[in-house]
Amino acid sequence: MTTPKAKQSTKKGRPAFRRTITVLLILLGVVLVGLAAWAAWQYKQERDVKTSQDTVNSTFKNIQLESDAYQDDFFHAYATYVVTENQAITNDIRKTVDAMFGPCKEAAQSNRSAVDYECNASPEINFATDDYLEVTYTFRQYPSEATVLDTKTRQVGLVYDRKTGKRQAITDIFKPQSAYLQKLSEMSQDVLKQRFNAAYYSKGTSQAAMQQVTAPQAANFNDFILSNDEKLVIIFEPGEVAPVSEGVVQAELPTDQLYDLFDQKVIDVFLPKLKEQKVAAAKLAAEAAANRERAKELVGENRENIDCTKMKCIALTYDDGPYAPNGNRLLDILKERNAVATFCMVGNRVASYTAELKRVVDEKSEICNHSWDHSDFTNLSDADVASQVQRTNQAIYSASGIYPKLMRPPYGAVNARVLAQVNMPLAMWSVDTVDWKDRNADIVHQRAMAGAKPGAVILMHEIHSTTIDAAARIVDDLQGQGYVLVTMSELFGITKDNLSEFDNKKLFHL
Ligand code: NI
Description:
Layout: H1 3-13, H2 15-47, E1 50-57, E2 63-71, E3 75-84, H3 87-110, E4 117-128, E5 132-143, E6 154-161, H4 170-173, H5 180-201, H6 204-213, E7 224-225, E8 231-236, E9 249-254, H7 264-270, H8 272-299, E10 313-321, H9 324-336, E11 342-345, H10 347-350, H11 354-362, E12 366-369, H12 382-400, H13 416-422, E13 431-432, H14 435-438, H15 441-451, E14 457-461, H16 465-480, E15 484-485, H17 488-492
Parallel strand pairs: 3-4, 10-11, 10-14, 10-15, 11-12, 13-14
Antiparallel strand pairs: 1-2, 2-3, 4-5, 5-6, 7-8, 8-9
The protein binds nickel (II) ion (NI).
Nickel (II) ion binds at residues 319-320, 370, 374, 410.
């Protein structure tokens, strides 16, 4: 064992050399620390944040935009503050912006990766009057190479009473006693389910989470934008009501459906167009009611008082019945509104619906002949045309006790040969709603109203339930415009006495 000996002799033999090494090492350490400090100082100099500030006037009176920019080689941060004449509002905006923007700025500043980092807070002034200010703030943060920005984006709607400086909560914009929270909850859920249902809410937990943040509690709806006449926008954070990848979700609720619940001042200030529409609609409804009363007085039980050379008359016509399920619904609508119509019926259906025919006659509407089996008369022999007309007249008489005055040829198809066989006034039309093709109540209503003018004859079909769905609206709107709804015979002044004068004449004078 010679090693320990050797070691000891080495240690004993070189004490001065060891001291020198120690001193050198300490010196080297000092130099290195100094160098590191110098490098760090240099580095910090380079990373020192450059800040700049800028204030400009906005396009709105008494509102400035103050922008703060911070940047170095690794990050950029911009915040724009809305500054108003009301210090409370200015302070609240600053507080809100800093709360959202501050943490991002800190994170960006301490980020040491080579990826650029960016934060910004940008306002959009949606609305500014002497009474109210509304700003939507969007906060974005992202490494600037990132492609998906939405998941980290936040949005907040800020609505202020400009006089008091108070930020408006959802409770401030509705009438206190109204059931607005329930309505907001229902409408939000409907909108969200429509938008995300298939992809998202099929998983029960997602739907439960959504229902929780849209439950009828004020706190759920305090982030909102009320910036135009048409929508109240409720803002939800990423992941609250939809997958995070959807980012911020805006649920757009039609203000039309909330109108009666809004605070009156909010209606006056934020919803002037809607208010105008509602006022106009109420006025129209009142006029319709008044016109209906006037028509009732004019006409009453005495329909011979009707004079369409002096009144604003219009005739609705319903073809291809009878068909009691629709006919009775239509007659209910007409009766309720003191209106009548003309039913052009197909002869071979009449025996099945004799009660409907009696009701049409009892309630002063008119039955017209629409052939026996809806054949195109121009393809029939003279004898067959005559037979189609006569059989149908007879069937209508048997069922109702009245012979029809008018004949409407199927498809409006007539020629000189056909005319020679009919020998009745021909109930043509001026407006074809083409209701059989679209089967859509809104379209029927729209076309009927577009074609309405004094003396018009509007063609529809009794057999389509969508057409009956449109009837109440058509009658209400026409009466609202001052029309008296009459039968075709009334429109053209045809009575038993002068009937022969109209034989084979086409009835439409537009
Ligand atoms: Ni027809």
